[in-house]
Automatic annotation (TrEMBL):
<feature type="transmembrane region" description="Helical">
    <location>
        <begin position="39"/>
        <end position="60"/>
    </location>
</feature>
<feature type="transmembrane region" description="Helical">
    <location>
        <begin position="192"/>
        <end position="211"/>
    </location>
</feature>
<dbReference type="InterPro" id="IPR000620">
    <property type="entry name" value="EamA_dom"/>
</dbReference>
<feature type="transmembrane region" description="Helical">
    <location>
        <begin position="132"/>
        <end position="156"/>
    </location>
</feature>
<keyword id="KW-1003">Cell membrane</keyword>
<feature type="transmembrane region" description="Helical">
    <location>
        <begin position="257"/>
        <end position="277"/>
    </location>
</feature>
<keyword id="KW-0812">Transmembrane</keyword>
<dbReference type="GO" id="GO:0005886">
    <property type="term" value="C:plasma membrane"/>
</dbReference>
<dbReference type="InterPro" id="IPR037185">
    <property type="entry name" value="EmrE-like"/>
</dbReference>
<protein>
    <submittedName>
        <fullName>Membrane protein</fullName>
    </submittedName>
</protein>
<feature type="transmembrane region" description="Helical">
    <location>
        <begin position="162"/>
        <end position="180"/>
    </location>
</feature>
<feature type="transmembrane region" description="Helical">
    <location>
        <begin position="72"/>
        <end position="90"/>
    </location>
</feature>
<feature type="transmembrane region" description="Helical">
    <location>
        <begin position="12"/>
        <end position="33"/>
    </location>
</feature>
<dbReference type="Pfam" id="PF00892">
    <property type="entry name" value="EamA"/>
</dbReference>
<dbReference type="InterPro" id="IPR050638">
    <property type="entry name" value="AA-Vitamin_Transporters"/>
</dbReference>
<feature type="transmembrane region" description="Helical">
    <location>
        <begin position="227"/>
        <end position="245"/>
    </location>
</feature>
<keyword id="KW-1133">Transmembrane helix</keyword>
Amino acid sequence: MFSFDSNKKAHLLMVTWSILIASSFPAASLIVGKIDTTSITALRFIISSCLFFIFISIFFKFKIKLPKIKDFICYSTLSACLVFYFWSLFKALETTTPLHTGILFTSVPLFTALISNQIFKVKISKHIKTALLLGAVGAIWAVLKGDIKLLSAFSFNSGDQTFIFGCITFAFYGPFVNFAKKKGMLTASSAVITFWIMLIGSIALIAIALIEQKGELQWGILNYKDYLTLLYLSIFTTIITFWQIQYCTQILDATIVMSYSYLIPSMVLLIDIFIYGNSAPPSVFLGIMFTFIALILINNEFKIPRYFSNSK
């Protein structure tokens, strides 16, 4: 009999996470440049915070209670990681392309492993390092659709520089959650933590946007299609993905969670092929195969033993 335990649930959630994140790149590009980047990111977070507050108030009977100082510091740190990542995506797309951001996003698992090892002293085996490199190669191959000429034509512009820093802050999120949970610094439910991360992010972004734009947030410039796009981004690629990362990082190791980033280019391609009927060269499936092999290798490695227990 198939047992749907918390680990299997977490893996399934991360597969859906990769699908949702894959949809965020083209969706974000639809509204980029219409108003200030910080202002539009603030609006996205406000919508997310309000909708999520309504949800947890109804289903979890949540009542606002100010967090303790240590909790507030943790929430603010996590919020800063995600806020900067989402802001960097919008900002980068002003001067770069979804293709470039897709390629750069494949660096997140590598940065996660590096941060875990160098900052939080988590042991990363050679086996895992090899699997991460294999996954990166496969993901980049999938992004390029097997056309190596696109990689040779890749030029690192200012938007790419911004987004790579966003990827680094995003990679910091998972290891910090693992560390904070281990030290007893994060004890609230995933839903409560997600709410405070979004609310703190909203307040910080509004303050910065008001200063940058001298009191004018420019939200009235957006039309109903822009707001529909923002609604999609707020619900599916902010609320849900925030909660998925928060929930799954408490069950799986940070490197496992972030390794699902390798699936994103493959998900984009598979949706494009099987839903929209577009064609792709057979060589593309080689990259997809590499990403799945890498995920299998990483998951098998972390079953024995959980690396935090061996850290000194």
